[in-house]
């Protein structure tokens, strides 16, 4: 080949290179996101920022395959995985990363199904790394601006498609603070309890606000039963929420959006008193009860800081042989715990505020034999998603047992407040979209002063009669 022919062939190759480079960078944008396609189906929200980062990685790798760029790709990829998982469980990226230390406490019933998606993502990341490194071309400068425009269009389209309301995990955002506590006089009644008076606060795990009023009413029907309403006035409402379970707890206990990691002795000195502390100072004994380990989310550390005089966790009840419920968090079942330890705490002398954080309705939900207002097998079922239907049945059963307990407790039980912590983090999009995106329900029951007999009516409560 003559020199002229060689130069001509080189020029033709250069003319073809921009098309190849453009296709390569576009492939980086597409291929790097393929492992996450399934998350769009379940509705975890927009990943527009990661699309832009993958496009940048395509441009950098196309220019020069520096080892540092490969490391940077993996940092972005792993951050993408963690961020997506965090959104599923209503954590911010930093909060979720900080919670990694609690992973050994997770015991999913079906470990393969729980961890397999993350293992597949890791394998996919290796395949993507090999592909984009193996087929890397060189990119001329003139392609940077056109591809940047294509990326902006892709990011905008992705944000428009993926930013569904159901993917909002951060709750009310800049909306004014709200809690069930501030919408009721539970705090005032607790601080002014008569001799031997009791109050009960229940924060119900993953108890969301259904859009369908018929479903909401079916779940809460036992609280509206005649044996309950004969003794208690019932107030129903909703409250805005933000974040995960500890934030839901602190929303009600302390009257503000807080993260449990921000509570220590120094921070406590600069913040207003939480209700348990106020109650304790007023001579009301305060006890916090939860059927899982107190080490989870450091509750053994911050429960005393918000004012609980006593704490009761799963490790404190090992000798009572209470039934365990399976799930991602294997702990004591709510209902046996409610019918034994909670019932005991509501008896006896002295003024007391009992706080109960439930556990069993945590997702992924494992079916339990409580409550059955919904048909979860039929073709025309009210709740199409099977797991959501089972959880709704369980919540109905829980409400039935709560209703039976309060109807059979003596007049010393002054008031009961039941409120959800956050919207349930269901995986499937259709299940997510059954709930309001920024509110949770609450029920407030206050003792009527013209109290009636109570001991023999509890057995009629659970069915909502």
TrEMBL record:
> So which residues are the signal peptide here?
none
Pfam families linked? Sulfatase
According to the entry, every stretch annotated as the Sulfatase N-terminal domain falls at 266-426
List residues traversing the bilayer.
Answer: 21-42, 48-65, 72-94, 114-133, 145-162
Query: Per UniProt, which keywords does this protein have?
Result: Membrane, Transmembrane, Transmembrane helix
Lyase: is it a keyword of this entry? no
Q: What is the protein named? A: Sulfatase N-terminal domain-containing protein
Source organism (scientific name):
Gimibacter soli
């Amino acid at each position: 080949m003559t020199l002229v022919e060689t130069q001509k062939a080189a020029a033709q190759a250069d003319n073809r290179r921009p098309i190849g480079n453009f296709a390569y960078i576009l492939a980086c944008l597409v291929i790097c996101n393929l492992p996450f396609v399934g998350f769009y189906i379940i509705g975890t929200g927009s990943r527009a920022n990661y699309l832009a980062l993958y496009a940048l990685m395509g441009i950098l790798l196309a220019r020069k395959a520096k080892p540092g760029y490969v490391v940077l790709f993996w940092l972005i990829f792993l951050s993408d995985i963690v961020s997506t998982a965090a959104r599923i469980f209503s954590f911010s990226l930093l909060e979720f990363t900080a919670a990694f230390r609690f992973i050994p406490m997770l015991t999913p019933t079906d470990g393969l199904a729980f961890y397999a998606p993350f293992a597949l993502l890791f394998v996919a990341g290796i395949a993507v790394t090999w592909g984009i490194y193996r087929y890397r071309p060189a990119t001329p400068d003139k392609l940077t601006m056109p591809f940047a425009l294509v990326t902006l269009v892709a990011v905008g389209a992705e944000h428009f498609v993926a930013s569904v309301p159901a993917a909002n995990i951060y709750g009310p955002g800049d909306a004014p603070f709200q809690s069930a506590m501030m919408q009721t006089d539970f705090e005032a009644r607790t601080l002014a309890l008569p001799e031997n008076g009791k109050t009960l606060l229940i924060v119900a795990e993953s108890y969301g606000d259904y859009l369908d009023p018929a479903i909401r009413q079916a779940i809460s029907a036992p609280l509206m039963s005649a044996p309950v309403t004969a003794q208690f006035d019932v107030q129903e409402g909703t409250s805005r929420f933000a974040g995960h379970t500890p934030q839901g707890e602190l929303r009600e206990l302390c009257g503000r959006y807080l993260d449990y990691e921000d509570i220590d002795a120094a921070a406590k000195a600069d913040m207003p008193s939480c209700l348990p502390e106020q109650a304790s100072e007023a001579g009301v004994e305060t006890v916090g009860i939860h059927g899982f380990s107190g080490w989870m989310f450091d509750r053994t550390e911050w429960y005393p800081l918000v004012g609980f005089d006593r704490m009761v966790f799963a490790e404190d009840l090992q000798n009572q042989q209470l039934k365990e419920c399976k799930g991602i968090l294997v702990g004591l079942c709510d209902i046996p715990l409610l019918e034994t330890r909670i019932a005991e705490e509501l008896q006896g002398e002295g003024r007391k505020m009992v706080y109960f954080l439930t556990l069993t309705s945590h997702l992924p939900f494992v079916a339990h034999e409580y409550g059955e207002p919904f048909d979860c097998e039929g073709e025309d079922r009210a709740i199409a998603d099977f797991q959501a239907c089972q959880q709704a049945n369980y919540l109905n059963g829980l409400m039935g047992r709560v209703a039976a307990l309060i109807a059979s407790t003596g007049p010393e039980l002054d008031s009961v407040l039941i409120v959800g912590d956050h919207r349930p983090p269901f995986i499937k999009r259709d299940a997510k979209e059954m709930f309001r995106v920024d509110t949770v329900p609450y029920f407030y029951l206050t003792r009527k002063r013209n109290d009636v007999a109570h001991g023999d009516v509890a057995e009629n409560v659970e069915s909502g009669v």
